[in-house]
TrEMBL record:
Residues 3-199 form the Isochorismatase-like domain. This is nicotinamidase. It comes from Huiozyma naganishii (strain ATCC MYA-139 / BCRC 22969 / CBS 8797 / KCTC 17520 / NBRC 10181 / NCYC 3082 / Yp74L-3) (Yeast). Belongs to the isochorismatase family. Keywords: Hydrolase, Metal-binding, Pyridine nucleotide biosynthesis. The keyword Hydrolase applies. CDD domains: nicotinamidase. GO terms for molecular function: metal ion binding; nicotinamidase activity. The lineage of its organism: Eukaryota, Fungi, Dikarya, Ascomycota, Saccharomycotina. GO terms for biological process: negative regulation of DNA amplification; nicotinate nucleotide salvage; rDNA heterochromatin formation; subtelomeric heterochromatin formation. InterPro entries: Isochorismatase-like_dom, Isochorismatase-like_sf, Isochorismatase_Nicotinamidase.
């Protein structure tokens, strides 16, 4: 059975008004609606993921009094674990129960008639998430994997925003968890679109058994 995963098509990731807008991100909305409604695709389920942060989330620059888009070293949220990870601090985005966190209306209106589920991520304050399956430490897991297994999904197709962050990480997790995984490139947009970044991304996906078509 195949499931479509639509990653983070939320107001804050969309131009012109989103606080962390992905360039040209709004261009994917109509194509994704067509893809969902295409009878030839025969989606068994459609999942929408949402970045869903509390105020003062650790990924917000303002939480640490640092400039937006600066580099930051995250410490493991697990007591006694001295592991660190490098990350980027973002403008405030996708705060729970705000306009910015809503999946764009146009998309939600179109899909109300389908079997779909919404998966929230990023709701624990002390850790960053990119993948819709788990936080960057792989300590906390969302309900996405359980949902896919319960609905007999063996194959996932991933679209949405942004290609080089949450789409990429969600796809790599899916492949690691044993799903046959494909990113549909035309239904995504990246933050970094230069040739070097794209080549690096393609290599990373290939090494992790994710198809990019
Ligand atoms: Zn976020």
């Amino acid at each position: 059975m195949k499931t479509l995963i639509v990653v983070d098509v939320q107001n804050d990731f969309l131009p012109p008004k989103g606080s962390l807008a992905v360039p040209h991100g709004d261009e994917v909305i109509d194509p994704i609606i067509e893809l969902i409604n295409d009878p030839a695709q025969d989606w068994h389920r459609v999942v929408f993921t949402k970045d869903w942060h509390p105020k003062k989330h650790t990924s917000f620059a303002i939480t640490h009094n640092q400039p937006e888009f600066s580099k930051y070293t995250y410490k493991s949220p697990r007591f006694g674990d001295l592991t660190t990870q490098e990350g980027t601090l973002w403008p405030v985005h996708c705060v729970q129960n705000t306009w910015g966190a809503q999946i764009t209306n146009k998309l939600m209106k179109e899909v109300s008639k389908h079997h779909f589920k919404i998966v929230d991520k990023g709701f624990l304050r002390d850790r960053e998430y990119y993948s819709a399956f788990h936080d960057i430490w792989k300590f906390h897991r969302t309900d996405l994997d359980d949902y896919l297994r319960k609905h007999h999904t063996t194959e996932v197709y991933i679209v949405g925003l942004a290609l080089d962050f949450c789409v990429k990480c969600t796809a790599i997790s899916a492949a690691e968890l044993g799903y046959k995984t494909t990113i549909l490139k035309d239904y995504t947009r990246a933050i970094n679109t230069d040739d070097e970044s794209m080549a690096k991304l393609e290599k990373e996906l290939q090494e992790n058994d994710v198809a990019l078509v």
